Amino acid sequence: MKPGEVVRWAGFPFQKEGPAKPRWLICLGKVSIFGQEAIFYLATTTTKLEYYQPGGKREKHPHFVIQKKLAPCFDADCLVDLRINRPEEFKESVINQHSGVIEPKGILPNAVLAELFAKIVRAECLPKKQLQAIRESLAGAGFTGLAKP
Questions:
Q1: Of 10, 42, 56, 89, which cross-links 51 as Cys (Cβ 3.0–4.6 Å)?
Q2: DSSP H or E stretch at residue 79
Q3: pLDDT tens digits, residue range 21-80?
């Protein structure tokens, strides 16, 4: 899995509520600290757009909408909720353990990923140190125009 990659994780075992189900995730970065196991930062998506419309139960949550026409690696329009689904850390061993059910779907276009990262920075949903590490990982993978934490 590489920074900017979209994956579909069948039977995602870390569901916050309800039974395990497939999740579409965005890899925001892989951070390696000498002598320690690498960490992946993954953002989960939802297609429950109606919750974020005016009058919806999550309309005030900071979120980022991803249109399928701008990110064809997705099957449908979706969004990242930066309050309840802020980017999470996954150890490389966990990713490797589940690699048989993680399907690569494509890479996000630079413009979409740069906008998403800017929204994550503005939402202050992660500590500055983590944001800087993610930014370095994305830049190292060739993404440009990334906001500074």
A1: 56
A2: strand 78-81
A3: 899 999 999 998 888 899 999 999 999 999 999 999 999 999 999 999 999 999 999 999
Show me where the domains of the chain are located: 5-140
Structure tokens at 138: 């994305």
Q: State how far the Cα of 136 lies from the Cα of 104, in Å rounded to an integer.
A: 22
**Burial of residue 66 (number of CB atoms within 10 Å: 0-12, 13-18, 19+):** buried
Question: What digits encode the pLDDT tens for the residues 19-29?
Answer: 778 999 999 99
Three-state SS string over 2-67 comes to CCCEEEEEEEECCCCCCCCEEEEEEEEEEECCCCCCCEEEEEECECCHHHHCCCCCCCCCCEEEEC
Mean of the per-residue pLDDT values of the chain: 94
Q: Which residues of 99-129 are buried (b: 16+ CB within 10 A; e: fewer)?
A: eeebeebebbeeebbbbbbebbbebebbeee
